[in-house]
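haha ok so turns out i had the wrong file open the whole time. this is the CORRECT one, sorry everyone. sequence first:
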Amino acid sequence: MSNTTNTTSNKLARIIKGKESEPSLTPPTGASTPTSDQTQQNDNWHEHCSKAARYLLSTLEASYYSIIENINELDVAALWKALIDHFEAEMAETCQVAIANLHNLRFRDKDHLEEPFSAWGTCCVDKGNIIKNLCPGSTTTPSVTVSSNTVTTTATLSVGTLIDEFTMSAIIEGLGTSEEMCNIKHTLHMTRISTLLDLITQLETLDNASHLKMMIHVLEESGADALTAKFRKGRSKVEPKMVIKYHCDVHGVNTIHMSEDCHNLKATTSHQGKKPKASSKRTEHGHKVITEEEDEDDEDEEEAAQLAS
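then structure:
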């Protein structure tokens, strides 16, 4: 860029900011008309004013023309001041609305009942970024006195840092006042979080812990339900046991046999008839052959065992 261009740009800027006024056309003492230099300077000034006015009007939407309709278009400084006054007021109002929007946010409101902690943090950060974009001008604030219980110091804070601090406060306070949320807020304060990124990381950790807690609860509930279902399923197959009672002349009422099936009665009848006692023998291969009497004795022993039980 040439020196001439730089000079022209600087002159336009000075005219817009009202730092340069129209050159005088008053004739010198003893003269009746301005000098040629005076005329040239005045013409140049008007040319620069015309360029500045065209530039301002070319960047302005038609809906804002009413702001400057009563101002001479060559009075560039007056045009600029009218526009600055309007937009600063509008920006201040917009910034106040943005701050109120962040301040009034609440975690898991009626429209976000299942909202994760990390999503809540991201929402607040987005609102904070809107405020940052609306903040005009300087990147730093004047030095301020920061007090604590033990020390008083002076620090220079950036606008972005102040907004981040406000966003962190909104995130924590917006969690609510329930017992669970108060415990979480206490935990967050105890971790001594220093940056917005640290807080977002802690919120993600809370999400992971909540998910793990939920999975454990689901598994516990599923395990209990499965055990109950298995128990009920097993019980449904159990049918009531039917008890049949018999009467024996020797053993009385029992659940095994009647008189005609009683081996004791049969044995008594057999002895009374002097039935020869049977014996056992072995085959040529050494296997024992169970005789009739031994078979009856075994049956007597089995019957006695069942009655005893």
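The CA atoms of residues 94 and 134 lie 8 Å apart.
again sry for the mixup
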